[in-house]
Amino acid sequence: MPRKMVVIFGASNVLWMVFTVSQAFKMEIFPEHRVIAQIGDVISLTCRTTGCEPPSFSWRTQIDSPLNGKVKNEGNNSTLTMDPVSFNNEHAYVCTATCGSKKLEKGIQVEIYSFPKDPEIHLSGPLELGKPVTVTCMVPDVYPFDRLEVNLMKDNKLLKNKEFLEPMERKSLETKSLAVTFIPTNEDIGKALVCQAKLNIDEFDFEPKERETTKKLQVYISPKNTVISVSPSTKLQEGGSVTMTCSSEGLPAPQIFWSKKLDNGNVQLLSGNATLTLIAMRIEDSGIYVCEGVNQVGKDGKEVELIVQVAPRDTTILVSPSSILEEGSSVNMTCSSNGLPAPKILWSRQLNNGDLQPLSENSTLTLTSTKMDDSGIYVCEGINQAGISRKEVELIIQVAPKDIQLIAFPSESVKEGDTVIISCTCGNVPKTWIILKKKAETGDTVLKSRDGAYTIHKVQLEDAGVYECESKNEVGLQLRSLTLDVKGRENNKDYFSPELLVLYCASSLIIPAIGMIIYFARRANMKGSYSLVEAQKSKV
């Protein structure tokens, strides 16, 4: 609120003192004697003299408190300005004018108040028909509040009156309130709440002494009587269309929202119109549809179930843990199929001749402690009055390699130049990998086998050694090994045995050694003794 200048002329003197002055020296003070100003505004007190050029002025409070204002002297005038007015300005002020030996004094009482804003009306909640609501009228920043009176009315009918006559313990701005609880009725629609606040300081003339706030009543009625109409029917054929219309009563008129309940419990919002039309309907459109009428104070809902009839389709099989298993483990095969009415589930196993062997009518087929014989094609069928939908899954039961055989044909002992076949086989285990290796200290050599067989034409001596067969699949592996012995032929003139090579190398070292021994022995005989150490020293 903008500050304003307050100048009010009083009717009587509060304090005046006149010292001996001549008839010509006179003094006036404006406003006269008493004035009231609002906290935050600006007020000026003025002293004016005649009969003295120029006089001197001074200002003080009657109880010698700080002025809390600014003094400005101009010729015969002196002005005390308080900007802004505060609690510290509530005093009796005295103006003293001096002209030579003559002195004049006049006083003025400054009163303060605060009544800056219109009342505020607050509601505890929306005005809902038939439900209690509390109305509070608040008057902010009032001083002195013991002069405050508040009236709360509904149109011209007084609901409550209050005067705040409790004593003030200190000077402060206070917010005072008046509360009333009532139950809205149909008669309250269109009426208004009125809060009147009066500051009863009758001995002063100021504006405004009364403030008022009006709030029109908005009475709400929560939505009710929600209804749904469906055309042509709630049971529909796939590809058809349907129109659903919803209405709801309330004040203000409820807004209509359409939604669909999902399988996970959530709700999918579809439309904010009263009419919902679905075309080219599919099985996924079946379900529960919800219409809600909503306004500021509540909501009311209605449900309708749509059924789209179709033949079974989208049949699926879920295998846990896997369709490829280790022998002895368990497996769950779960089948689902979409259709209306809900399809019946039938599990079968496909035989070698193509016929189906019925197994179960439950959605989940469980096999425990599986064997290789359980491998095969399993069939799930979703069946209702409209048709059949079929899905297959192949189950593979694996076992670790076993019954592995590693042989050398014609024998594990052959002669140089012969032909030998090394063959590895693994009995009754499908999808088994066969790896043939020749072992050596420098590293194994993988042999290029065919169907687990490796042929060596014209065996050489270096072909002798250890051969290993590794049979493995996803489940495990098994090893077998054999030792191939290759003998040299007797009529081979160029045959040079390793033993002769070793003997030859040894003899080439022994002969020089014998010569050295004979040499040192002779020298020892000449000297009468022999020392190998001394002999070595003599050569250094």
TrEMBL record:
One Pfam family cited in the UniProt record for this chain: C2-set
Molecular-function annotations in GO: integrin binding
Transmembrane parts of this sequence: 501-521
Protein name (record): Vascular cell adhesion protein 1
Record GO biological process: cell-cell adhesion
Record's signal peptide: 1-24
Protein topology in the membrane: Single-pass type I membrane protein
The keyword Transmembrane is annotated on this UniProt entry: yes
Organism of this sequence: Neovison vison
InterPro entries reported in the protein's UniProt record: ICAM_VCAM, ICAM_VCAM_N, Ig-like_dom, Ig-like_dom_sf, Ig-like_fold, Ig_C2-set, Ig_I-set, Ig_sub
Protein task: Cell adhesion glycoprotein predominantly expressed on the surface of endothelial cells that plays an important role in immune surveillance and inflammation. Acts as a major regulator of leukocyte adhesion to the endothelium through interaction with different types of integrins. During inflammatory responses, binds ligands on the surface of activated endothelial cells to initiate the activation of calcium channels and the plasma membrane-associated small GTPase RAC1 leading to leukocyte transendothelial migration.
Compartment(s) where it occurs, according to its Swiss-Prot or TrEMBL record: Cell membrane; Secreted
Keywords, comma-separated and alphabetical: Cell adhesion, Cell membrane, Disulfide bond, Glycoprotein, Immunoglobulin domain, Membrane, Repeat, Secreted, Signal, Transmembrane, Transmembrane helix, Ubl conjugation
One GO location term (cellular component): extracellular region
Domain Ig-like residues, every copy: 2-105, 223-309, 312-396, 401-485
